[in-house]
Amino acid sequence: MRNRISLVSRFIFKLYIAAFFSMAALSVSGQCQSSQQQLLLGFKNSLNFSLSEKLVKWNQGTDCCSWDGITCDASGQVIELDLRNQSISGEINNSNGLFCLQHLQQLNLAYNTFISEFTSGFGNLTSLSYLNLSNAGFTGQIPVGISYLTKLVTLDLSQISSLFMGGPFLKLKKSNLKMLVQNLTGLKNLYLDAIDISANGKEWSQALSSSLPNLQVLSMRSCYLSGPLSPSLVKLKFLSIIHLDDNNFSGPFPKFMAEFQNLTSLHLAGNNFSGRVPEEILQSPKLQTLDLSLNEFLQGSFQKFLPNVSLQSLVVSGTDFEGQIPESIDNLGQLTRIELADCKFTGPIPKTLEKLTQLIYLDFSSNNFSGPLPSFTSLRNITELILYGNQLNGSILSTNWSSLPNLVRLDLQQNSFSGTVPPTLFQSQFLKIMDLAKNQFSGGFGEIKCELSSVLEVIDLSHNGLEGKFPMFVSEIQGLNFLSLSWNKFSGLIPLSAFQKLKNLGTLDLSYNNLSIDSSFTNLPLLPPFRNLYRLNLASCNLTKFPDFLKNLSFLGHLDLSNNQIHGQIPTSGPKSNFSKTTYLDYSNNNFSYDLPPDIGNLLQFAIFFSLSGNNFHGSIPKSIGISYNLEVLDLSKNSLSGSIPKSICNSSYRKVLDLSENSLSGSIPKCLMMQMRESLGVLNLKQNNLSGIISDTFPENCRLQTLDLNQNRLCGKVPKSLANCRMLEVLDLGNNHIDDTFPCHLNSTSELRVLVLQSNNFSGDINCAANNITWPMLQIIDLASNSFGGKLPQELLMTWNAMKTEKDEPYSELLRYEVLPLSDIYFQDSVTVTIKGLELELVKILTIFTSIDFSSNKFEGHIPEAIGDLKALHLLNLSNNALTGPVPSFLGNLPELESLDLSSNHLTGQIPVQLANLNFLSFLNLSNNELTGRIALGTQIQSFTEDSFRNNAGLCGRPLEVQCDSPPTSKDGPSDSQTDKHVNWKFVSVEIGFVCGIGAVILPLMFCKGWRIRYYKCTDRVLYKFFSKFDPRNRTRRTISHWTRGRRL
Predict the structure, then answer these.
(1) Contacts of 831 (CB under 8 A, 6+ apart)
(2) Which of 243-247, 338-342, 348-352, 571-575 has the lowest mean pLDDT?
(3) What are phi and psi of 621, to 5 degrees?
(4) From CA 549, how far away is CA 517, in angstroms rounded?
(5) What's the average model confidence in pLDDT over 689-714?
(6) What's the pLDDT tens digit per position in 178-204?
(7) How far is it, in rounded angstroms, from Cα 410 to Cα 401?
(8) Other CB atoms within 10 A of residue 658 CB
(9) Which residue from 25, 333, 572, 880 puts its CA 20 to 30 A from 40's CA?
(10) Where does the signal peptide begin and end (predicted)?
């Protein structure tokens, strides 16, 4: 009975509560006043609202207080208007009825497109406590009327979209920040992101600290603020959120940030802070998010993470943070995001990381982490794991990848991981991106019997050591958009038709394996195969004919068929011509032949990259090549093209690389090519042709050229003076021509020059450029051989070649090349021919650490300058066939990287310095045809070279030469014969006397003493019998020769 009463009592109580709140609601939101409704309808009708879910429902026949987005008070006055993200457009001016809603307390028009000037009418809404106009589309100057809204608690005028649409759209200059906030003393939340304030740190900091004592949230991203941050911000003691990303702040990191006791979020990313981040910031107990990324010179490290901290997001990517991650990272138990990309962290990734079970996002890319990969099995919430660009090694099997149900992206590329690739990665039902490229994975793949992933979109296993049978199961992964298995050791015959079921496939790269590709389709489906394919790379796949199915690929933008055996003509017209919209075409190193098609320009209307290098094309270059206005890279090198270079080739205003080298082109170089360098041309390679005439002196003032290679032509004249305008020039090769000029001292502004080749021309004069103040600090290869240069080698010029002074010990050196598109695989590889060990060798790839000086076959004279002894990084030095005098300098032994030294055919004198034995890498030495004297040092590396290295030095002796060294005579050894002027060599006399005395001491007793003879013969017999027992007289067969001889002489 009591239970029943209790139940009834509870029911009645709940009814009472419900009735109370219903009455309260009615009392708060009264019936809309007609004046308010008319103002709202007028506001609606002034706008374009067809896409708005709220405004389309506003109509005259209903109570405006019931309209979606409207809140009224008890008297029917509108106090809140929320129209955020309603796709509303139109203009709001001062006469708009919106500004007559005098009781409005909250107004939110965010994320619309009011493309109109920021009107001053907002200043009439003096009852506002909340105003949000972020990303509403307003433009122009923020009116001073905003400062009249003295009741504001939250003001949000931020503009995110303006960063991507050419903003900023809003400015705060005429009425500066101080005027805007001077009356807003109750403001707690201020959002001014992407508004052009253009103030220095002290100006805006003091404006805020003097007017907004209650400020808790400050967000001023991308406001064009500059200078160091002012300590006056410390006065804002209630600040908990500080977001000042993407400004121009500079100077030391503001250490006073550690003084904010309530700080929960600090974002200072994308500035120019320097100095060291104090440990107090990282150990702040209330701090939840810290973003210091993209401050290139900002330093710091993680010494120790204290327990019980609140950090949830830690981002320091793109800074100068360094050191190791401490084991105490497991104290960050609430951490969900950690980004340490592009820093200088080293050492292993701590195993304690597996305790961060709340972790969702981890990015340690582009550091120097090393060692094995810890287990991530316990990180069940992880969605993205990014570790590319480190030195991690070992197997990745320590993690049970099937236990990470939320993993969407796994990026381990550019490490040294080895072992096999876990097959479970192909079965994950959440993994979309799997990038394991550029590692050392090996082995193959067996059959995967379990269900394959249906969501996997990206598989990149390129640049590994995977081998065996091609994993055909990848053709069953229906969701694939990107598949790259290039640069492995897979083998077998692969029918491309097996991939046609991959309807979403956009990129397919099977290049550089041991595969043979069957590109035929016997049973074509109704819909063409690969209809969404945009990028196809089949380089080095043993193709012998052009794939017919390519004619159906209407979206193909990138095609690489290089390094095959495809023969015949390239497709430009007829059924195989569906490439007019393709931007990248690489047909290099095949067996294509015939003349270039006259309409080849039609093929290249949208092309950016086009290469026919290394084929058998002949004939002339068609004039239609000029139609390719967008072509950035044109490579027709290594063919048999003839005729002149058509002027139409200059039509492209975007050309960056033009390579016509190793053909039989003739005529002059078109002047328009020089003018094209003003726009974009960075590489002009015309070497090994039959071009003649002069090099036009029309290089433009703003020349962008980086590589000019005209080697092995018939060019004459002089080095153009205007070439000095090419201040970005890195490679200049004019070798093997007929240029008649002096040393190009006028190139004193080309401070980026790395390679200078002038060999085999008619240059003359000295190379002393002291008057021109020339410095080439980056110069690493200089070849002046086979000219008529003379005078002394310039000490001052040699001293400016800093790149030859610094020893580089990096394990990997950069290649000298021209990048067409940064962060892409499209580049021009510079090459140069150098003389090494007496043989010409083409360096098809120039390492930035390779250095060479070749001044051979000129008329240089004088001593070898001491400045050469400072070129510690020099690999090759050739001063042969000159008129140099003086000794071989001992400082050459201080060049630790020297591999080849040729000083032959000069007039060098003196002895070979023993310091040359210190050259551990020296593999070629030629000191022949000089006037060297003395002994070649015994027991040194110098003696390991052949006789050819030292021949024709009259005073040189000792191994490996046949001439032996004698001790020099002295007058104290004996008297001289004054009549014959001959000296007695007592060394030989003493030897002869000793020999005669020794023989006499043995022979004379045997001749004159019978007893001695008998004992001698007995001793001799015993020795002979021991080795020749058959002659022993005890055998009684015959007498020995010894006995017979003894019998005769007794």
Answers:
(1) 842, 843, 844, 845, 846
(2) 571-575
(3) -80, 120
(4) 13
(5) 93
(6) 889 999 999 999 999 999 999 888 889
(7) 10
(8) 26
(9) 25
(10) 1-30
